[in-house]
Write a structure and sequence with these properties.
about 725 residues; alpha/beta; Beta-Lactamase; eight-stranded mixed β-barrel; six-stranded antiparallel β-sheet; 25 helices; 25 strands; about 50% helix; Putative transmembrane sensory box GGDEF/EAL family protein; coiled coil; transmembrane helix; Biofilm_reg_signaling; EAL_dom
Length: about 725
């Protein structure tokens, strides 16, 4: 029996050993297989990492070349678009000024190495290299490709900047070259074609500067090689004529291979840990814990970042502003905060879609990141709003003003988004916290208030916070509240200005205009409360109120047309046509008697949306007129493209018709253009009889102005119409007798 127990015990031990062995062997096999899979995966990751690093180096090299060229472009613009340069070159021919401003600057090579001024025949006027007059022939040094850049600058149209740049091959090697027409800072060229001068700046891309680029952009072994050199990754340099001048190559760092060599022994060593099952679990648990902690840190950092732009978000900005204000209280420094709101972003977003809008946000974020200093924090607050905060030892707003000017200059340039080129501006508000005396909440409020003040003043502006802005904001808020109540309670009054036939001077229509007698303040000008309505979102309710009142009044004047102004805010609403239909149905007025007037400015910003809105309105039967024609954006293309039923000539063209011969010629041409397109013309702003007679002779069929009647209440229009009808009846009776 003891032998049986011993045999059973032995067999049990063997069974347990086999199970343990089987488990260990199985675990070892699993570990080996997993190790092999890990090694394979790491190898693939290493290859992909190498590829990504080389592609990143390629992109960085391309960016370095563009920056090198861009620096020369900025220098070229500063030295060519100068009032002093235009006076010295075209006026008194001040060679001393030219030598001091072009020749001496070329001596240190910081901005450029060579400066040449040529005439319209490409004949050099002056030339400097390294601070000394050039003795060599310019074409022998720079080659013929430079004339392509000069020709490009020469042939640039009025709407463009007469500048061009690129890389060319010179006798001293590859160089970035820029050519620009010498002009005043405003862009005006004070001499006619044939007498113009062109500034050529040259900056050589030599080995020393390539080494600087290599250090700045962390590109190992960056060097210039001949264009025929074969390399896995290289960036070609091409001249304006399309000829390859050379290639920039670099030493691949192969970070993936280095990482693989470091990881591979560790993975192989893991095979020896098969027997230490619990140790492996502890190690894996530790690694998992570390990974979780790292993810938590990453998640916390990610919560402070804007996903679209990669910049700080509002919470991240809050923390940074608090940190800088606290530091300023200790060291007596100043904290400057800039609030930016992009001008025209909504129109671009609406016209081209959210995808283009997102790309624009990323492009602006990238540009701002280049402009701000390392000590600054850059944030996107949402939508099209950005913020920049940075410390400075200067206890004034000067550093912020300098940065704001750089931002405005950057945003004034066209941005290429995909295959589209868009232009945006920015309204910038600036606030400061000297010695940390202003806390974060108040600092943000002040910057935001200054930004809206800049936006009210017009696009592309910067405004520093002033205490008077608080009173202005309170006054504007009160005005908005009173206006909202006035619209809801229908306390606004609609008046009507007569439109008369140019031949008979009989009233043929009226234009509806809104007036507001604000309780406790008296009459408020439409120029004051209309912009408030537009920015506060009240313009749609206000516009529909005026349209409804005008249509109700027009029912008692069956022989008159009624014209109503439409704001851009109303036109942007896709449901506007439906609102108009409801008003026409409720007032039971013929759609053909209603004319909606839109200004040229909105057409310029939103041509496609304008076309769609006009088509929907004309489908209802209403007329659409182009208001303020000739006020600055007039285009024959708009008249043909949108099919307006009438144009109204702006008062700026009619007011000087009797004194200004040029104004008369412009009016005559404008009316002739409209008549050739079968579009009737209304001239507004007529204040004396002679103006009306002149405009009638030019061909205007309808006139409007104080001479024919000021804006008047509905009852006055009815009286005037009754007198007009009675006179017409008497005339008919007299003719019959």
């Amino acid at each position: 029996m003891g032998a049986g127990i011993e045999s059973l015990r032995h067999s049990t031990q063997v069974g347990r050993h086999s199970i343990v062995t089987a488990v260990l062997i199985t675990f070892a096999v699993v570990v080996a297989v997993v190790t092999l899979m890990v090694l394979t995966a790491i190898g693939r990751v290493a290859d992909y990492s190498n590829k990504l690093d080389d592609e990143r180096s390629w992109e960085t090299t391309v960016g370095a070349l563009k920056t090198f060229q861009g620096q020369l472009e900025a220098t070229l613009h500063d030295h060519s678009a100068r009032n002093d340069a235009a006076r010295s070159v075209y006026g008194r021919d001040d060679r001393g000024w030219v030598a001091g401003n072009y020749g001496d600057i070329s001596s240190n090579g910081a901005l450029f190495d060579t400066a040449v001024i040529v005439d319209d025949n490409n004949k050099p006027i002056v030339a400097y290299h390294d601070g000394e007059p050039m003795t060599e022939n310019v074409e022998d040094v720079l080659g013929t490709a430079v004339w392509a850049l000069v020709d490009q600058a020469r042939t640039t149209r009025i709407t463009g900047v007469p500048e061009a740049s690129g890389y060319i091959m010179t006798s001293k090697g590859i160089a970035a070259v820029g050519a620009a027409t010498i002009r005043e800072r405003s862009g005006r060229i004070p001499v006619p074609e044939g007498q113009r001068r062109y500034l050529i700046l040259v900056r050589y891309l030599d080995a020393e500067r390539i080494k600087v680029l290599s250090n700045i952009y962390v590109i190992s072994g960056l060097k210039l090689v001949p264009p025929e050199t074969v390399a896995r990754y290289a960036v070609s340099i091409v001249d304006p004529l399309g000829k390859s001048l050379g290639r920039l190559v670099w030493n691949s760092r192969e970070p993936g291979d280095l990482s693989y060599q470091q990881v591979r022994p560790l993975v192989l060593g893991a095979l020896g840990l098969v027997g230490l099952f619990f140790v492996v679990l502890l190690i894996l648990g530790s690694l998992a814990g570390r990974r979780l902690r790292a993810e938590e840190v990453q998640a916390r950092q990610g919560s402070l970042r804007d996903r679209l732009s990669g910049l700080l978000n509002r919470e991240g900005l809050r923390l940074d502003v608090d940190r800088l204000v606290e530091r300023a209280r200790g060291d007596g420094s100043n904290v400057l905060l800039l609030y930016l709101d992009l001008d025209g972003f909504k129109e671009i977003n609406d016209a081209y879609g959210h995808g283009t809008g997102d790309q624009l946000i990323r492009a602006v974020a990238a540009g701002l990141s280049v402009l701000v200093s390392p000590q600054a924090s850059l944030a996107r607050l949402g939508g099209d709003e950005f913020a920049i905060v940075f410390p400075t030892k200067e206890l004034n707003d000067a550093p912020a003003l300098r940065l704001a000017e750089q931002v405005l200059d950057f945003l004034s340039e066209p941005l290429e988004i995909g295959r589209r080129v868009v232009v945006v501006g920015a309204s910038i508000g600036i606030a400061s916290s000297p010695e940390g005396r202003i806390d974060r909440e108040e600092l943000v409020r002040r910057a935001d208030l200054a930004m809206y003040k800049a936006k009210e003043a017009g696009r592309a502006r910067m405004t520093c916070y002033e205490t008077a802005m608080d009173a202005h904001r309170e006054e504007r808020n009160a005005l908005e509240l009173d206006l909202r109540r006035a619209i809801e309670m229908e306390e606004l009054v609609v008046v009507y200005q007569p439109l008369v036939d140019a031949s008979s001077c009989e009233m043929t229509g009226v234009e509806a205009l809104v007036r507001w007698n604000r309780p406790g303040h008296g009459p408020i000008s439409p120029e004051t409360f209309i912009p408030v309505a537009e920015t506060s979102g009240l313009i749609e309710a206000l516009g529909l109120f005026v349209l409804r009142k005008a249509c109700e009044a027009a029912r008692q004047w069956p022989d008159l047309r009624v014209a109503v102004n439409v704001s851009p805010g109303q036109f942007r609403n896709p449901a506007f046509a439906d609102y108009v239909r409801n008003v026409l149905n409720s007032t039971e007025i013929e759609a053909g008697r209603v004319t909606l007037e839109i200004t040229e400015g909105y057409i310029i910003q939103n041509p496609e949306r304008t076309r769609q809105s006009i088509e929907r309105l004309k489908a209802l039967g209403v007329k659409v007129a182009l208001d303020d024609f000739g006020s600055g954006f007039s285009s024959i293309g708009y008249l043909r493209q949108f099919g307006f039923d009438r144009i109204k000539i702006d008062r700026s063209l009619t007011m000087n018709v009797l004194e200004d011969g040029r104004a008369r010629e412009m009016l005559r041409a404008t009316v002739a253009l409209a008549r050739s397109l079968d579009i009737p013309v209304t001239a507004e702003g007529i204040e004396i009889e002679e103006q009306g007679r002149a405009l009638q002779n030019f061909g205007c069929d309808e006139l409007q102005g104080y001479f024919y009647g000021k804006p008047m209440p509905e009852a006055e229009i009815s009286k005037r119409l009754a007198v007009q009808n009675a006179a017409a009846l008497d005339e008919e009776r007299g003719a019959a007798a």
